C-alpha cells in the first residue's frame, strides 16, 4: 500500500503534521474530528481548512446523508467515515481527487445502487473499506465465502482502479473475473428489474393488444415477455 493506504490519522489536538519547505511556517494538511458527536460539519472548519486539508478523519460521529459539505474540501485525498450512520441511500458529492475511503461499521445494507452512486461521485478510488456493513458479507458477520466473493467482485466491477478492498489487495485476476461476471449494461438492466416491474402491466397491455389484419381479422399476440 502507498502512504495513503498506511496513513494514520492524528488526534484532533495534534493536527499539524507536515512542515512546508517555504518560510510560511507550519502547514496543516490533516484534520481529525473523531468522537465529536457531529452530524454536520461546522462552517468555521470548512472556512478555515476546506482548501488545505488532504486527510480528514470524521469517524465515530453521526453523519448520515448530509455529506454535501465534503465538496468544499477540494484537495481531499483520504476520508475516514468509520462508525457513522451512512446507509445505502447516502449520496456523496463529486470528489474526483479522493483516493482512500473508509466506511467500516456503518448502516449499508444493500450494495445497489449505493456502489453505483459511489462510483459516480468518487470515480478514482484506490482504497476502499466497507467491512462491518451488512452489504459486505464476511466471516466477521456470518457471511459465507461465496457471498464474500460475490460482494468483492461486484464492487470491483464498478471500481476497476481499486488497489485495495477491505483487508486484501486487489489482483488482476479478480478484476478480470469481475468484468466477466458483471457486464454492463445487461447487468444494470437485471438489477433494476424491480423498477421495470412497475411498468409491467403497461407492457403486457401493449404486447397483448390484438393485431388487425387488412381484412379486418384480429390475431392475439399473447403476453410472453423477455426482460
UniProtKB/TrEMBL annotation:
InterPro entries: Leu-rich_rpt, LRMDA, LRR_dom_sf. It comes from the Eukaryota. This is Leucine-rich melanocyte differentiation-associated protein-like.
